[in-house]
Amino acid sequence: MVSEQPEVGSRAVVAAEDLQRLLDILKDRGYTVVGPAVRDGDLVLEELDGAGDLPRGLKDEAAPGAYRLTPGEEGRFFGIRVGQESWKKFFLPPTLDIMEARREAGGWRLVLPGQAPPRFACVGVRACDLAAIGVQDRTLRHGLHPDADYAARREGAFLVAVHCTDPGRTCFCASMGTGPQAVGGFDLALTELRQGGRQVFLVEVGSAAGAEVLAALPHQAADGSVVEEAAALIARAAADMGRTLETSGLKDFFYANYQNPHWEQVAGRCLSCGNCALVCPTCFCHSFEDVPDLSGDAVVRRRRQDVCFTLDHSYLHGGSIRVSPLSRYRQWLTHKLAAWQDQFGCSGCVGCGRCIAWCPVGIDLTREVAALRESDAETSPNP
Amino acid sequence: MTGQGHASAVVPVGEPMLPRIFRVVKRVRETADTFTFNLVPADGGQELAFQPGQFNMLTAFGAGEVPISISGDPARPETLVHTIRAVGSVTKVLCRAAKGDQIGVRGPYGTPWPVEQAKEQDVVIITGGLGLAPLRPAIYHVLGHRADYGNFELIYGARTPADIIFWRELERWRGRFDTRVHLTVDSAASDWRTNVGVVTHLIPRARFDPENTTALVCGPGVMMRFTVQELRNRGLPLERIFVSLERNMKCGLGLCGHCQLGPVFVCKDGPVFPYSRVRDWFEKREI
Fold first, then answer.
1. A160 CA to chain B: closest CA distance, Å?
2. I need a surface site. Which of A63, A68, B163, B256 has the fewest CB within 10 A?
3. Which residues of A touch B258 (CB under 8 A)?
4. ipTM of this predicted structure
5. What is the mean pLDDT of each run of 10 residues along chain A (383 residues)?
6. Domain with CATH 3.40.50.80 in chain B
7. Would you list the DSSP string of A227-293?
């Protein structure tokens, strides 16, 4: 047993049975512990009562337009990679009341919320999702005008990441440089593995808060063999990605391919439903609505998640700018993979593959990018 | 907060998202559907200083919030002036506001017209329709510092004589010896005494030295495209042609994602851009 406070960057081994104690420690420290759970046969992210809520022994199988939970490795806590929800539901809630205006004798009075921010401990954040949180931080927390609510939620959060050792068929984090290893931004990172027939977590400390939590948890020093084994599992995962995306020159490619004939082809399949943007862990578009009560004397201003696939998104007096589904899909993909780089200095895609699985017609952006590149090569004159 | 089942923000949204309440002190009917409002802070608090070309997010409580350019004089910020056309669900409610009514104001946001960089130069302002409203602060500025600038030409086009805004001021500006005002309408009855046709036809008549001129352009998209073309024909480089662009905006802060035009957020990177910066995107359809 190690008694002194572990250092940031250090590793230790924690028995799988002690996962519950980790959750208890987090709860004791005032965190609302959230993580993956199965509800009505589907994977959701929600508040966990205990480790028993985790989808233990299950794994997910994803394909274009398909997602299933199936039996996986027995006893494994984090066999499921990513479901339709992402952690943005906690930091950028789909709807959020930001203020209320009340009509009183002297005129309108604004009432602002003032409760303490919930402090979420997110348990089981995959490398891709950890990267996505970093991407949203750039957009909503580190820009010229931070979103105060987002920033408060993020500042209070504790992130328990899980390194990926078993990527799915729609995964391509290795292409996007965001996984399978969680690098930075976490408080603790787990690798789930077996040591001498015993199920354990190799725990990596990513922050002072993480060190403090680990110190309160029974743990043993990690010997070289377990660290090596974990590294080998992650390396194998990197070589076993279900998909790849060629990222070289993507920004210039998209900027130059506004009229690529393949856009017509993909637009012919796209339903403009917006599922891809809703499940995307980095998509941040939102709108504001005023919701009056029946008297009209109390008006709640509500922030609401929005997607760029609606006519309303680009509506300007008299009509929308992006009237065709083609232009809306093009906007989504060009923004995600190209314009994002100019706006926020990173890609808007982390390679989680959600948009592939939750597209009702199975549009797969990795294949669309490849097809756009092929189409460009065919139609461009030879140099 | 009353929104049942909806999360509430955990901290006050802070200055950027929090409207200040202003009171209407004057309402002027410009055309059948366009009105100019003079506003002052309802709490008698600090005036809202702004630069020509900036905009505010205006709230009609219960209807919503929209971006509207400031149309007043930047040298007289004690009164906030907005000119609004009733075209949508929010602007229709805003336009019904009467003297004494309250309007929410957030801002000012966005990049200004380059009135400082344009000093010592000729200034050409070309505008169509309601585009004159966001340019009026720049006009006030140039006229208020008239000796700092060379030739000053204002070209303004409206659909019909009945659609002309700021009529009395146009007459006043037209009467000055140091300002040339060119007015045109798309169509008019036979009693109309000046030009008929699109604004671009008047550009060849404007007096300016292309080597030393800044052009400020605001109007419908098509009008701006052809205006830029005509200014280029006169030898003006794209870097000195400035346009004010319009997009759907919900936040004004570059956070909500609606106002994107390729890599730029029109609300925070614009709305005023040198044309050279947005040309590649602006000239494409459905971007």
1. 23
2. A68
3. 285, 287, 306, 313-314
4. 0.93
5. 77 96 98 96 95 96 96 94 96 94 94 84 98 97 90 96 95 96 96 91 97 96 93 95 96 96 96 97 97 95 96 92 97 98 97 98 97 90 55
6. 122-244
7. HHHHHHHHHHHHTT-S-----TTHHHHHHH-TT-THHHHHHTT-----HHHHH-SS---EEEEEEE-
